[in-house]
Amino acid sequence: MKKIVLFLSITIMAGVAFANMYNSIVDTTSWISNVPGSIAVFRQYYHSVNPGNFFRIFSPVNQILALLSLILFWKTSKKVRIFLLVAFFLAVSGDVLTFVYFYPRNDLLMNLPLQDNSAKFTHILKQWRSMNWIRTLIIFTGLLFLCLGLNRIYQNKTPHF
User: Fold this and answer.
1) Tens digits of per-residue pLDDT, 126-157?
2) Burial class (CB in 10 A: 0-12, 13-18, 19+), 132
3) Separation CA 105–CA 128 (nearest Å)
4) What is the pLDDT of residue 63?
5) CA distances from 130 to 22, 29, 45, 98, 113 (A)
């Protein structure tokens, strides 16, 4: 049962990482393509739902599963504990970055007047894209640490001949 939680944590963190990467590759390229027209389309397209709807569900699930994995495997070994602790810390860090850095920029993208702000939109979008790659790297690093923890768990169970 414990390993199922860890495998779920790995799966969800991978999903969050790849969804984030999709935002960097596809969405931001579209958003920055024809400012301010692309911003008008962006606003219209994301009027009802946006990537935040996905991340508001799966980022907390990601953090909960990472924390549960840490708790469940706490006594396995010090290395496993460290790997899973780092993974949890990175999962939380990705969300902290979202609240501190991305939400204010998303607010500007949705509410700044379209007229006479093309340069500002372009600047915000370039910042957004660059930092989203950093956020993706943080999440992928967390995924790596989950996998390292899983690997160490299996190494601890493997008989040595």
Assistant:
1) 999 999 999 999 999 999 999 999 999 999 87
2) buried
3) 7
4) 98
5) 13, 12, 22, 13, 23
Query: pLDDT of 20-73, one tens digit each?
Result: 999 999 999 999 999 999 999 999 998 888 888 999 999 999 999 999 999 999
d(CA 126, CA 97): 16
Three-class SS of the chain: CHHHHHHHHHHHHHHHHHHHHHHHHHHHHHHCCCCCHHHHHHHHHCCCCCHHHHHHHHHHHHHHHHHHHHHHCCCCCHHHHHHHHHHHHHHHHHHHHHHHHHHHHHHHHHHCCCCCCHHHHHHHHHHHHHHHHHHHHHHHHHHHHHHHHHHHHHHHHCCCC
pTM of structure: 0.91
Q: Are 157 and 31 in contact (CB under 8 A)?
A: no
Round to whole Å and give the CA distance between 138 and 131: 10
